[in-house]
Each structure stands twice: as structure tokens, then as C-alpha cells.
């Protein structure tokens, strides 16, 4: 006689006997859960990584045009055909009240694929807040400080190459003699910032201007000077200016002053928020699709299990004949279904997290910034909701088995 209310021994025996069906069931549930986990966690990682990459840019100033393009160009170093901001605006911005520093961001050259960025010392050390892990920041023309990921040693000497990629001839020589004549000596390495700037080589902006045949922003005869104060009459155009305000109130005031017919001023966070809204819409759509997939998978799995349970109705009738109660048989079926759903959901959680980590590593190489992958409440609600739904739907085969009489089960073919 079966008197103990413990369905686990029967469930364990059933799963061993039907291990192939159990494994397929777990795998199908896991794949559906993993898709939802990957969508949610990857969207969060993209938000966090892109927002952290913009931390060094409180206020951006550029020529009138697309705000998104300005952010992509200056923050994420994705330069395109960006209009130049008149040089006198740089001179003006550097002297405005509330400005801690106004740094020109000039690009167009590279070394072995690493972008060379012309700027000022204050931006290189972020106003004194960023101490090099090796050496020091540049202090004179011809010096360079490199990002954490640049494969150069202190003391190394390099010559710039024009453009975003290699611009050498087949023998490895510079076809542009003006660039070949320019040499930078690495004097420092910055700590990791976990964004594209870890691959940048920062040099005095005057050198970038000079190598392109432009004035250096200073009075004639003062060729070795770097950084402000500037001579507005000798300032070439710049793609962007990164401004560090002295306070939040100063930031809003400066943004208003620098929004003119000749310039646009913006907080990168504003542009990112617009992008996040678009990403949020895409995420919501993908989440709905993932949830729909989960429901369909669970329904299909349960239908397959239902067929399997109906095929084993003689077995359950024998249990009833041996003294098992209807409730016992109900629990055997329901627990077996729930265990398969829980195992699939747990495996899917691990699979989705691992897939998201691998995808983040791949995207890091494409975007240049680190995307930290983590699991949060949305993933928990997703898994918990699936388990709850599976538990509720699992009552169907359990109930059908529960209501079948002993005689009906024993006479089944």
C-alpha cells in the first residue's frame, strides 16, 4: 500500500525512464528563457556602458548640425564629415565664467590604427582628476600620453599617419612627408577608462594643427607654447570642444550662452536619453517576442508531456490500485512537470547570461566601450513568471490524470 505523500521516488523513476524526453523538454525551455535573458541584460549593459563612456564629457560644443553625430564623433570617436566649429568660439569658451577648462578635440590621424587626438593637458588629465599610471601627461610639443590599451612603451617615438587607418605605401613608408616629419615621444599612460579612449593617443592640439599646415593658435614666434590662452585670430576650426563646468548651475548657464547660430551646445546625456528611448522601444518589442516564444514553447512542451502522461495512464491506474490517492497521482504528474520547467528555466538563466557576456565582449570590439553584464529584477521576474505559468499550466495533465478512474486506466490500451 502506498500511504506516504511523497511523489519524488515515482517522479525520479519516471524521469530516468524517459530521460530523452526530459532532456529535450529542459533544452527547449532553456533556449526560450535564454533569449529573453539575453535581450534584457544586453540592453541594460549597452545603456550602462555607453553612459559611462560619456562621463568625461559634461558639455559638448560643436558646429550646427546633428547632435547625435557630435556625440558619436567626440565621445565615441566615430568621426565622419563633421563641420568645423570656428576657432574664435574656442577662444571665447575658454574665457567664459564658470569654465574649468574648454578642450578642443581634434582628430584625423592615427598610429597603427590607434586614433591620435589633439587636445590640451587639462583634458588629458581631466582637470587633474586623472593621474597617469605611468609617467606623466604631455607638457610640451612632440609629447604624447597614451590610453591604457595602446601597445606602446614609455619613451617610444612614433610618427602619425593620416586618416583613421594605416596610410602607408607598400614598403611601410609614409607617403605624406609632413606626417613622417612629425614625431611624438610617449611620456605617460592613462589608467583604464573602459571605453574607446583607452585606445587613444593624446597629443598637444598644436601639433595636430601644425602637421596639417594650420596655424597653432598662438602669436607668431611662440611656437612652443601649448594650451590656452589662445590667439583667436590664429585659431583654426575644431570638430568639437569638451567643456568642464565648475558646477551644475554653471553647466546650464554655459549651455545657454554657447547655443548660438554658429554653435550648438549640449549635454551628451540628453542625446543618449533619446537613443535609450529608441533602444527601449526595441527592447520592449524583443521582450514581447521572447515572452511569446516562451509561452509557445511551454505550451508545446506541456502538450507533449500530456500525450506522454496519457500514454502512461495504466501506470497511474496501477498506483491507484496499490492504494495511492488521487491527490498523490496528481502531485506525481504536477511535480514532474514543474521540475522540468524549473530545470529548463535555471539552465536558460545560465545560458542567457553566458550568451550575453560573449555578445558584450564581441560588441566591445565594435563599439570600443565595456558593457558590464549583470542580472537584475527583470530577469528574475521573467524566470519567476515562466515557472509560475508552467506550474499553473502543469495542472492540466495532472487534473486529467486525477479525474480518471482506476477501472478506466486499467482497461486502457
Please summarize what this structure is:
With 413 residues, the chain is of the alpha+beta class. It has helices at residues 8-17, 19-53, 67-74, 87-95, 121-124, 177-180, 205-211, 248-257, 268-311, 313-321, 326-367, 377-393, 395-403, 406-410, and strands spanning 59-62, 99-111, 114-119, 134-135, 143-146, 157-158, 161-162, 184-189, 201-204, 240-245, 264-266.
Instruction: Measure the end-to-end span.
Output: 25 Å
Approximate helicity band: 40-55%
**Poorly predicted tracts of residues:** 166-174
Shape: elongated
- Average pLDDT, all residues: 79
Notes on the structure:
With 413 residues, this protein is of the alpha+beta class. The chain has two domains: 8-51 and 274-410, no CATH class; 59-266, no CATH class. Helix content is 52%, strand content 13%. It has helices at residues 8-17, 19-53, 67-74, 87-95, 121-124, 177-180, 205-211, 248-257, 268-311, 313-321, 326-367, 377-393, 395-403, 406-410; strands at residues 59-62, 99-111, 114-119, 134-135, 143-146, 157-158, 161-162, 184-189, 201-204, 240-245, 264-266. Strands 1, 2, 3, 4, 5, 6, 7, 8, 9, 10 and 11 form an eleven-stranded mixed sheet that branches. Residues 166-174 have low confidence and may be disordered.
Amino acid at each position: 500500500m502506498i500511504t506516504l505523500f511523497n511523489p519524488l521516488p515515482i517522479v525520479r523513476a519516471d524521469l530516468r525512464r524517459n530521460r530523452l524526453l526530459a532532456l529535450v523538454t529542459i533544452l527547449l525551455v532553456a533556449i526560450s528563457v535564454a533569449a529573453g535573458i539575453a535581450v534584457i541584460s544586453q540592453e541594460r549593459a549597452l545603456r550602462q556602458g555607453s553612459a559611462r563612456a560619456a562621463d568625461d564629457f559634461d558639455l559638448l560644443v560643436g558646429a550646427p548640425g546633428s547632435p547625435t553625430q557630435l556625440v558619436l564623433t567626440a565621445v565615441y570617436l566615430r568621426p565622419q564629415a563633421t563641420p568645423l566649429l570656428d576657432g574664435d568660439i574656442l577662444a571665447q569658451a575658454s574665457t567664459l565664467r564658470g569654465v574649468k577648462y574648454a578642450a578642443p578635440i581634434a582628430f584625423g590621424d592615427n598610429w597603427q590604427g590607434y586614433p591620435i587626438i589633439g587636445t590640451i593637458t587639462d583634458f588629458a588629465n581631466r582637470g587633474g582628476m586623472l593621474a597617469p599610471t605611468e609617467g606623466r601627461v604631455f607638457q610640451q610639443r612632440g609629447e604624447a600620453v597614451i590610453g591604457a590599451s595602446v601597445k606602446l612603451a614609455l619613451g617610444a617615438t612614433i610618427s602619425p599617419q593620416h586618416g583613421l587607418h594605416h596610410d602607408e605605401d607598400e614598403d611601410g613608408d609614409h607617403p605624406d612627408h609632413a606626417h613622417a616629419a612629425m614625431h611624438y615621444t610617449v611620456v605617460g599612460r592613462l589608467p583604464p577608462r573602459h571605453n574607446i579612449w583607452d585606445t587613444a593617443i593624446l597629443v598637444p592640439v598644436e601639433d595636430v594643427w601644425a602637421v596639417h599646415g594650420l596655424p597653432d593658435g598662438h602669436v607668431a614666434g611662440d611656437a612652443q607654447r601649448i594650451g590656452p590662452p589662445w590667439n583667436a585670430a590664429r585659431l583654426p576650426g575644431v570638430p568639437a570642444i569638451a567643456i568642464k563646468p565648475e558646477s551644475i548651475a554653471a553647466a546650464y548657464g554655459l549651455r545657454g550662452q554657447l547655443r548660438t547660430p554658429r554653435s550648438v551646445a549640449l549635454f551628451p546625456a540628453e542625446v543618449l536619453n533619446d537613443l535609450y528611448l529608441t533602444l527601449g522601444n526595441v527592447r520592449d518589442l524583443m521582450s514581447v517576442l521572447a515572452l511569446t516564444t516562451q509561452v509557445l514553447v511551454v505550451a508545446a512542451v506541456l502538450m507533449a508531456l500530456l500525450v506522454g502522461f496519457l500514454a502512461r495512464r495504466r501506470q497511474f491506474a496501477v498506483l491507484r490500485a496499490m492504494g495511492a490517492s488521487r491527490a498523490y497521482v496528481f502531485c506525481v504528474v504536477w511535480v514532474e512537470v514543474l521540475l522540468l520547467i524549473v530545470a529548463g528555466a535555471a539552465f536558460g538563466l545560465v545560458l542567457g547570461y553566458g550568451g550575453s557576456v560573449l555578445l558584450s565582449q564581441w560588441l566591445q570590439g565594435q563599439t570600443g566601450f565595456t558593457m558590464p553584464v549583470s542580472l537584475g529584477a527583470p530577469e528574475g521576474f521573467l524566470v519567476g513568471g515562466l515557472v509560475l505559468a508552467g506550474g499553473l499550466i502543469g495542472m492540466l495533465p495532472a487534473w486529467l490524470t486525477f479525474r480518471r478512474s482506476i477501472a478506466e486506466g486499467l482497461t486502457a490500451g
